[in-house]
C-alpha cells in the first residue's frame, strides 16, 4: 500500500468546529492510536483563526491503492443477516457523519474524521482475489454482501469500477450476493444485475436516512439526494431486481420521518425494510458530537441524552442484540413505529431469498459465458 501523504501544514490553527464544503466531518480528529493529541485553543491572543469557507478550497480526495491479500470477510455476528462480505474500498467519500466504519481508518494511522472521507483506500486487485477464494476447494457458498462497511458505489467507483469487476466474478460463478448503497451509480450495472435477479442471485438495499434534502446534505454530503435514491429504487424494481430500503440510522431528534421514508420507498417498489439506531463506537462519538455542535447546537445535548437512553446510559453498547436497535423504552417505541408502518404498507411480507444452489466455481477457471 502506498504511504498516505502528510497532512498539509498551516501557520494558522484552524477552528476545528466549522463545516467543510462537501464533507461530513468538521475536523481531522486524532485517531485513538496517536501518541500526541492536538486541539485548537483560543488564549485570547487571536491565534485561533476561523476558516474562510469561501476562500479556502475544500479538502481534496486522495486515492491510495492497495493490493488486497484477501477479499471475503466472514461474519459470525447473529444480528447481521449475511455470513460473508466484500468491501472494495476503505473509507468513503460520501462523508456520512454517522458511519460506524469511520474508526477503522485508525488502524491505518489516519483520522476517522476528514481522512476517512478524503483518503480512500482502493483495493485494485479485489476481483482477482475474490475469484481465487471462490474457486478454492474449501469454500462453501453463502450470500455475500458487497459494501457492508463502506459504500461500494461511492464516487470513485465511476472511474475505478472495482464493484463492477466483483459483480462480474460473482455472475460468472453464479454466486448469490446483496448490495447496500446510497448511490444512484448502481444503475450503471443494471445490465449485469437484471439477468442475475432473474436467476435469484441478487438483491439490492438502498439506504434512505431522511426525505429532507437539506438534512441529508449535512448528514451525508456526497451521497445521492433522497429523491434520486427513490428513483434508483424504482429503476431497479422495474428492471426486476428485488429491492429493499434501509432507514438507518435512526438518530433521535434529527431524522424523524421514518414512516414517510418507508411509504415513499414502498411506492417506489421496495419489498422489504430494516433499520438500526445510531451507533457511536470509538472516536465516532466525539466526531458526531462535533457535528451536532456545528449543525444543530440547540438540540445537541438532547440528542446525546436520548442516544444514551438507548444505550443503557453510555454513548455505545456493542453487545449483540442491543447494538443495532438499542434497549429500553425509546428502543421499544421505535420498534413499534417501524413494525406498525411495515404492516400498514405491506413491507417484509415475503423474505427475499437468494439461490445458493446455482454456484458453479468451475466456471471461474475457464471461459464460461457470463450468463446461460
From TrEMBL:
Region spans: Disordered: 1-24
Keyword annotations of the record: Iron, Iron-sulfur, Metal-binding
Domain Radical SAM core residues, every copy: 75-314
Membrane spanning stretches: none
Pfam families according to UniProt: Radical_SAM (PF04055)
NCBIfam families on file: rSAM_PA0069
Stated name of the protein: PA0069 family radical SAM protein
Annotated source species: Ottowia pentelensis
Amino acid at each position: 500500500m502506498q504511504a498516505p501523504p502528510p497532512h498539509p501544514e498551516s501557520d494558522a490553527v484552524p477552528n476545528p468546529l466549522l463545516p467543510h464544503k462537501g464533507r461530513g466531518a468538521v475536523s481531522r480528529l486524532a485517531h485513538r492510536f496517536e501518541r500526541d493529541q492536538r486541539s485548537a485553543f483560543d488564549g485570547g491572543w487571536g491565534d485561533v483563526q476561523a476558516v474562510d469557507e469561501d476562500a479556502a478550497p475544500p479538502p481534496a480526495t486522495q486515492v491510495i491503492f492497495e493490493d488486497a491479500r484477501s477479499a471475503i470477510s466472514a461474519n459470525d455476528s447473529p444480528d447481521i443477516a449475511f455470513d460473508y462480505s466484500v468491501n472494495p474500498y476503505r473509507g468513503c467519500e460520501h462523508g456520512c457523519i454517522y458511519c460506524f466504519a469511520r474508526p477503522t481508518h485508525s488502524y491505518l494511522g489516519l483520522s476517522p474524521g476528514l481522512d476517512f472521507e478524503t483518503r480512500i483506500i482502493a483495493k485494485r486487485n479485489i476481483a482477482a482475489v475474490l475469484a481465487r477464494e471462490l474457486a478454492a476447494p474449501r469454500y462453501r457458498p453463502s450470500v455475500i454482501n458487497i459494501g457492508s462497511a463502506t459504500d461500494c458505489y461511492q464516487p470513485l467507483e465511476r472511474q475505478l469500477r472495482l464493484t463492477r469487476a466483483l459483480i462480474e466474478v460473482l455472475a460468472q460463478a453464479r454466486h448469490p450476493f446483496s448490495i447496500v448503497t446510497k448511490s444512484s451509480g448502481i444503475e450503471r450495472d443494471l445490465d449485469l444485475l437484471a439477468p442475475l435477479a432473474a436467476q435469484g442471485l441478487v438483491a439490492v438495499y438502498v439506504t434512505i436516512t431522511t426525505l429532507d434534502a437539506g438534512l441529508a446534505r449535512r448528514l451525508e454530503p456526497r451521497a445521492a439526494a433522497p429523491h434520486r435514491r427513490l428513483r434508483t429504487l424504482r429503476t431497479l424494481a422495474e428492471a426486476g431486481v428485488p429491492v429493499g430500503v434501509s432507514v438507518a440510522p435512526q438518530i433521535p431528534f434529527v431524522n424523524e420521518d421514518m414512516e414517510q421514508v418507508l411509504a415513499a420507498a414502498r411506492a417506489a417498489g421496495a419489498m422489504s425494510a430494516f433499520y438500526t439506531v445510531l451507533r457511536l463506537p470509538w472516536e465516532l462519538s466525539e466526531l458526531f458530537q462535533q457535528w451536532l455542535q456545528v449543525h444543530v447546537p440547540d438540540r445537541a445535548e438532547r440528542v446525546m441524552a436520548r442516544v444514551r437512553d438507548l444505550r443503557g446510559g453510555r454513548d455505545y453498547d456493542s453487545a449483540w442484540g442491543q447494538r443495532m436497535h438499542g434497549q429500553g423504552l425509546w428502543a421499544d417505541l421505535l420498534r413499534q413505529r417501524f413494525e406498525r408502518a411495515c404492516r400498514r404498507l405491506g413491507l417484509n411480507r415475503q423474505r427475499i431469498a437468494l439461490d445458493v444452489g446455482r454456484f458453479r466455481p468451475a466456471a471461474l477457471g475457464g471461459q464460461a459465458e457470463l450468463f446461460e
